[in-house]
Amino acid sequence: MAILAVCSLLVFLNPKQAFSPLRNFFLTAAYPFQKIFYILSKKTGDTMEFLGSISNLHAENERLIKENSSLISEISNLRQEKKENENLREQLGLIPKKKFDLEAAYVIGQDPQKFGSWLIIDKGTSSGIEAGMPVIVFQGIIIGRISEAYLTSSKIELLTNSLSSINASDSETNSRGIVRGEFGLGVLLDMVAQTDVLNVGDEVVTSGLGSDVPKGLLIGKIQEIKTTQDKLFQQALIVPSVRYSNLETVFVIKKSIN
Amino acid sequence: MFQKIIILLIIFFSAVIQVSVFPRLFPSGLSPEIVLMLVIFWTSRDGFEKTWPKAVLSGFMLDLFYFWPAGTNIIAFALVSYGVGFFARRFTISQKNMGLLVLLLLSAMGSAANSLILLILAKIYKGLGLELGIFLPDFWNRMIFLKILIDMLLFVMIYWPLSGLERFLSFYGKKSMQGRFFK
User: Tell me: the pLDDT tens digits for B58-73?
Assistant: First the structure.
């Protein structure tokens, strides 16, 4: 009973700062083991996945050949568009896309209870990482923000985490809203005015309003549009552009370089 | 002292494995609870009275690694340990084969009870408006049976190594006691 009483009191008071040094100590001590274990388990998981997928290899191969040929044609189109884009930028005197001061980090742990809540990475305050910094993967896809930074590791609060919220907009129609996590299950673009336009398949990007998150980072594509129960706002279910449970390397945006 | 350090290291590395290894090998919601299985093993051997410090330490370690408010896993582990200790006393674990069967049953009960306790705690926190960042899979679906099964398999896998280690530690303890008396 005494244990329960003390623990209940601890939980309700939730003195996070009081346990931070202890958490920091254990996370720092665990860091090398976590890194080794995570890499080894990934290799084991990949091998198991490969063994399980051998029967599908033929179909997969055919699909990839088709996909490859369509990608080749897409690349040539994009090269053409890139050239046009560069010409137009030159003519308009626009600066190129923002560049970021990135810190590459390996994922070394994740929420075992429910994936899509948080990740642990192998970089912390010793690498200049601070709470609130956005985290992206290749090609500028945002996956979340640093919520807690320790000496050699940090916790990323993923976009699918229900505590996460970020300002976003539809890249095609510029409709603005707030992207919220859905208890580790998915992402929801919420608080979009009824007068704004949303289309299924549109890309949702960060709007850069009200936080340290730069504008234009990709979140995902709209899968379904619905209206809130009070009929005041529109909501859109977003399919994230990456599978958060399979991430290996991420990049923390320390600051934007204009 | 040596025994305590070994126990601390076992709990520490089990927590590291639980956060860094199992999530890569098992689907969401099915990640096994090795730290909980340790607590169930120790409680079934020594009873709640002797095991509660280990249960508290295990819960605290997991709270640190899960980034949960300190106390959440301690409450769950303490209650599970109490329950397992209560039932372990009532079952006969003298026969070798029968003993493992009863232990498996206890590990299944402990696994289910732990999930249920955590779910209830998360609901209480939410009801009180506390946003503590605890995310749990839905308890009442088919997945829970699979999770219990995985936990039981893990229990079988750790049972013999832990029994061996326990024998070694008790042997070491006796040796060091003798050393102290004869010096």
Answer: 999 998 888 888 888 8
